[in-house]
């Protein structure tokens, strides 16, 4: 595990964006796993700027997002489809990009098909991750099995509350989502975890220092052979 502790969120974004850009430039990332949420927004901005300046290209990179709410269409501004379009896909051409379809008629079949697409693409070279204040990665809430694959999950109330700012009303936050599983995430050849702000301090401590346990889904990353954590001093304050 490589732990990079930076002064603040801005420095975390700069370091993580540089790390990802270097990997892509070196040709080591043909398939990238992407995350939504507040943590990666500045990273996407920095990567988009590099692409606009002609210093970086994702033209031969295929992406797979971690998750999507069930029942939200790509047109819904709170969907992760819309988030990715806003922050990255509208600015950065990729070979292909994939997000689980929250409107799938048959979400079980969609989950299986998503796993198959990742496999067919050759697996994920680098997976970008945020961490929930309850230790979730993707939408794998506490209790998620380590052998879980892409599936339908029920969101924890704390997750619904944390994400409510993206919706007109708190009750609009969906209760269900499709997410890559813990085993799907762990199959990536490299993991890049971002944690910023005091609200992530407990979760980061449990993830890094605690036992590897489904109680803190991110703790499974301790057993990944190629893990980079970028944290600011607030998030790292309990380490
Ligand atoms: C996002 C995702 C989540 C977030 C996590 C942190 O696709 O799967 O695990 O990474 O909830 O969210 P932020 O960055 O908003 O604190």
Short note summarizing the structure:
The protein has helices spanning 9-25, 41-52, 80-89, 107-120, 157-162, 182-186, 201-209, and strands spanning 2-6, 31-34, 58-65, 67-69, 94-98, 126-129, 151-154, 176-179, 191-195, 227-232. It is an alpha/beta fold and 239 residues long.
Walk me through this protein's architecture.
It is a single chain. This protein is α/β, with parallel strands linked by helices. It has helices spanning 9-25, 41-52, 80-89, 107-120, 157-162, 182-186, 201-209; strands at 2-6, 31-34, 58-65, 67-69, 94-98, 126-129, 151-154, 176-179, 191-195, 227-232. It is built from 7 helices and 10 strands. 31% of the residues lie in helices and 20% in strands. The mean pLDDT is 98. The strands form 2 sheets. It has a 7-stranded parallel beta sheet with strand order 1-10-9-6-2-3-5, covered by helices on one side. The protein has a 3-stranded antiparallel beta sheet with strand order 4-8-7. Bound molecules: fructose -6-phosphate. Fructose -6-phosphate binds next to loops.
Highlighted features:
globular; 7-stranded parallel sheet; 3-stranded antiparallel sheet; 239 residues; alpha/beta; 10 strands; binds fructose -6-phosphate
Indicate the topology.
Blueprint: E1 2-6, H1 9-25, E2 31-34, H2 41-52, E3 58-65, E4 67-69, H3 80-89, E5 94-98, H4 107-120, E6 126-129, E7 151-154, H5 157-162, E8 176-179, H6 182-186, E9 191-195, H7 201-209, E10 227-232
The structure holds fructose -6-phosphate.
């Amino acid at each position: 595990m490589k732990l990079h502790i930076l002064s603040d969120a801005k420095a975390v974004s700069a370091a993580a964006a540089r790390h990802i850009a270097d990997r892509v430039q070196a040709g080591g990332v043909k398939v990238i796993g992407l995350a939504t949420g507040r943590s990666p927004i500045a990273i996407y901005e920095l990567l988009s700027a590099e692409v606009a300046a002609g210093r970086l290209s994702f033209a031969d990179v295929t992406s797979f997002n971690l998750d999507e709410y069930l029942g939200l269409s790509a047109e819904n501004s709170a969907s992760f489809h819309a988030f990715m379009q806003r922050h990255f896909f509208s600015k950065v051409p990729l070979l292909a990009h994939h997000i689980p379809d929250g409107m799938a008629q048959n979400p079980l079949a969609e989950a299986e098909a998503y796993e198959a697409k990742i496999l067919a693409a050759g697996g994920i070279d680098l997976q970008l991750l945020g961490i929930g204040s309850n230790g979730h990665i993707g939408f794998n809430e506490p209790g998620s099995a380590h052998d879980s694959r892409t599936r339908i999950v029920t969101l924890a109330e704390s997750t619904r509350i944390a994400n409510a700012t993206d919706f007109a009303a708190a009750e609009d936050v969906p209760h269900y989502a499709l997410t890559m599983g813990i085993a799907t995430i762990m199959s990536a050849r490299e993991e890049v975890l971002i944690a910023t702000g005091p609200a992530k301090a407990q979760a980061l401590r449990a993830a890094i220092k605690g036992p590897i346990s489904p109680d803190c889904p991110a703790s499974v990353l301790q057993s990944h052979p190629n893990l980079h954590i970028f944290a600011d001093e607030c998030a790292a304050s309990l380490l």
